Amino acid sequence: MKALHIAATGMKAQELNVEVISNNVANMRTTGYKRQRAEFQDLLYQNLRRMGADTSNTGTIVPTGVQIGSGVKTAATGRIMSQGTLEETEKDLDVAIRGEGFFQIDLPDGTTAYTRDGSFELDADGNLVTVDGYTVQPGLTIPDDTRDITISADGTVQGIDGAGNAVTFGQFTLARFVNKSGLEAIGDNLFLETAASGAAQVDVPNSDGFGDLQQKYLEMSNVDAVTEISDLIAAQRAYEMNSKIIQAADEMYSTTSNIR
């Protein structure tokens, strides 16, 4: 009897499903977070009677056959890259992306990471950095005596210097990917390019195929509480049903072993 093993794979799959859902819920208020979804595939089948096999010398064939599955496996934990809601912050250096694109971040080892989290700060030298101190490409520097900083929809950064003159400090660039779901999440709201995502295509905001920027806003996560709760209930019920199958199989084994 293979029911024990099959039901066990079902319980493992739903356990992972709950872990993915719990991570989504935990990051409901994480800036720029993109929810994940567990995807499953059935395992190999045992053919007890193969469909299409001959059953007589006259060419009669089996119409359906007999196949017994061996359970389920996790195929992927795909990331849903839909737009999150924008929340106003009233902070000059908070920037949200509306549409396609990622901010480019220089990591200490020289690697370029990508993020939708636009909560930026200035370091001691006036460089635009993330909350972890990583430099934001293409390297914008804003002097400490600057006031009335504005970031336009196309990413142009301007302000008024100490002498009262309007100054342009540079322009943001964005990166987009053919398969953005193929990016590798490394934590800290950062992603890395992979062979699955394709190479980054870089251009200024509001250009063809790229989104624009919204100053004094941040993009919240795209996690929907109602969807996650309903998915959690469905995963819990599936887990319970698989556990019932294990109990039933165990009782059948017990009945067989008690035959005199």
UniProtKB/TrEMBL annotation:
Residue stretches making up the Flagellar basal body rod protein N-terminal domain: 5-34
Gene encoding the protein: flgG
Major location (coarse): other
Native organism: Roseibium litorale
Protein name: Flagellar basal-body rod protein FlgG
Domain Flagellar hook protein FlgE/F/G-like D1, residue spans: 96-158
Residue span(s) of domain Flagellar basal-body/hook protein C-terminal: 214-259
Record keyword Protein transport present: no
Family: Belongs to the flagella basal body rod proteins family.
The keyword RNA-binding appears for this protein: no
Annotated SUPFAM superfamilies: Flagellar hook protein flgE (SSF117143)
UniProt keyword list: Bacterial flagellum, Cell projection, Cilium, Flagellum
Organism superkingdom: Bacteria
Subunit organization: The basal body constitutes a major portion of the flagellar organelle and consists of four rings (L,P,S, and M) mounted on a central rod. The rod consists of about 26 subunits of FlgG in the distal portion, and FlgB, FlgC and FlgF are thought to build up the proximal portion of the rod with about 6 subunits each.
Subcellular location(s) of the protein: Bacterial flagellum basal body
